[in-house]
Amino acid sequence: MKKVKILLLSACLSSLFAIQSFAGWIQQDNGQWKYDQNGTPVVSQWIEDQGNWYYFDENGVMLTNTTQNINGVNYTFDASGKWLDSNADKEKTSNTYKNTEFGYSLEIPGDVTTTAFDGNTQTFDISNDKMLITFDNETCPEYLDPQIYANAYEVGFVSALTEQVTFIDRTNTQLGEFAAIKSRYIYSNVINLDFYACIRGNKIIFVFSLYTPDTQSKAQEILNTLKLLK
């Protein structure tokens, strides 16, 4: 059953993240991003993507995590390169998802598509055009070590993906209020794939987060709302 579920999740991922969706974005070996527009590198120019604005300097490199004077006006860009508009409406609406069996809650913005409230308490997705977050709540059998179970799950998931997957690193981290093991991958050479395993006894919350530079901050913002139910 677990193998079938992994195959279904990976098939959904492959379908949603068709490579043509990311035409234009090019990541360099040093992690910097450039943008190709109809075969011509974008330089000293703004690019709008999914309602967000990004600026590429005279070398064609996307500005990130900085404030830059452009044509006499100071603009601030976050770590994902998105321009932070100080005049934008800060009010956001969200819905709270709660899973009492696994003991967590999550704030899901109203501007994304989600299956969290469809009645399936084991697996749900949160997505937009260039972002996919999947939660899979698993109960490890009593006779198995939860860490071994989590490792096997990750190997099965990654091996089932149809496109090239490159492993980057694995670290212990925090996912909201949960301790987690995080593995980072690059999927199809251009898509970031973060795999999290939050182990609490024999209850394991698996989280897959896929994003591009323009949706990185959105994905992380959602994941940061993961809280322990009191």
From TrEMBL:
InterPro entries attached to this UniProt entry: Cell_wall/Cho-bd_repeat
Superkingdom of this protein's organism: Bacteria
Signal peptide as annotated in the record: 1-23
Keyword Signal in record: yes
Pfam families: Choline_bind_1
Transmembrane segments: none
Cell wall-binding repeats: 43-62
UniProt KW Repeat keyword: yes
Keywords per UniProt: Repeat, Signal
Name of the protein in question: Putative cell wall binding repeat protein
Upper classification of the organism: Bacteria, Bacillati, Bacillota, Clostridia, Lachnospirales
